[in-house]
Design goal:
The structure is a single chain. This protein has 247 residues and is an alpha+beta fold. Helix content is 36%, strand content 26%. The protein has two domains: 75 residues, Nucleic acid-binding proteins (OB fold (Dihydrolipoamide Acetyltransferase, E2P)); 163 residues, Recombination protein O, C-terminal domain (de novo design (two linked rop proteins), Up-down Bundle), CATH 1.20.1440. The strands form two sheets. A five-stranded mixed β-barrel has the order 1-2-3-5-4. It has a four-stranded mixed beta sheet with strand order 6-8-7-9, with helices on one face. A hairpin with a 3-residue loop joins β2 and β3. α4 crosses α5. The longest helix is centred in the C-terminal third of the chain and has 19 residues. The protein binds zinc ion. The site of zinc ion (ZN) has 8 residues, from β8.
Length: 247
């Protein structure tokens, strides 16, 4: 059965001398694997669209537990990512996070839209890398069944406070007055970081990356989002560790 999907190439493995094996986040079938015969050769019709980070349209047919790529057409190459190792590494981390969070053979159009926006902002370099990474982490986790509860302090119901705490293990917040329980790991959030956390989870996707933060707030927001990702995955990822060696 033939299948036409739109998607982003998350990972490319070489297969033999001339072939490529691609892991693709698709709109209709989640994360799938596709074999592209001869795609390593520049002359091959599928060579451009089967590179990492490319957004394109793919015609596939099923073969056992993977797909064979017939035709492909690229739409967005995000070439700006190649200009900076930090933004490239962040993009690689978001690709690995996607592979961890998105199941195979299930619709993932919302996740794909989110990834397209994140890669676009990283490629254009119009927002700090940490801001794009943190907003993407919070949103990816939220739409993958790990929605945090950032509405109010879990103890007293306060909406705002100069200082609040985010608890990565439970995805809850508390205010400075109520504090955290003994032994509970929490990250301090000033007003700027708290607003950013709420925005990253509840804002319309079109506006997700359209904000800015002072350095101190950005650090808190970035630390909170990353701690939440590690807590929910119950592990760190190799691409995240690599990103840290670059920072
Ligand atoms: Zn409270």
């Amino acid at each position: 059965m033939n299948l036409t999907v739109s998607g982003i190439v998350l990972k490319v493995s070489q297969s033999g001398d001339s072939d490529r094996f691609c892991t693709i986040l698709t709109d209709s079938h989640g994360v799938i694997s596709a074999f592209a015969k001869g795609a390593k050769s520049m002359k091959n019709k599928n060579s451009t669209a089967t590179a990492q980070f490319v957004y394109g349209h793919f015609e596939l047919y099923r073969r056992r537990d993977y797909y064979i790529m017939d035709e492909s057409q690229y739409e967005e190459l995000y070439t700006g990512l190649r200009e900076d190792i930090l933004r490239l590494s962040a993009a690689q981390y978001l690709c690995q996070l996607t592979m961890e969070l998105v199941p195979e053979e299930q619709p993932a159009a919302g996740f794909l839209q989110l990834m397209r926006a994140a890669l676009w902002y990283l490629s254009e370099n119009s927002r700090p890398m940490q801001l794009v990474k943190a907003a993407a982490e919070m949103r990816m986790l939220s739409i993958s069944g790990y929605m945090p509860d950032l509405v109010m302090c879990r103890e007293c119901g306060a909406y705002e406070h100069d200082l609040m705490y985010f608890i990565p293990a439970t995805g809850q917040i508390t205010c400075d007055k109520c504090g955290v329980k003994g032994g509970e790991y929490a990250i301090k959030l000033g007003r700027g970081a708290m607003t950013a956390m709420r925005h990253s989870v509840y804002a319309d996707l079109k506006k997700l990356f359209a904000f800015s933060l002072q350095d101190e707030s950005l650090k808190q927001f970035s630390d909170a989002a990353e701690a939440f990702a590690i807590s929910k995955l119950e592990k760190s990822l190799t691409t995240l560790e690599f990103l840290h060696t670059m920072m």
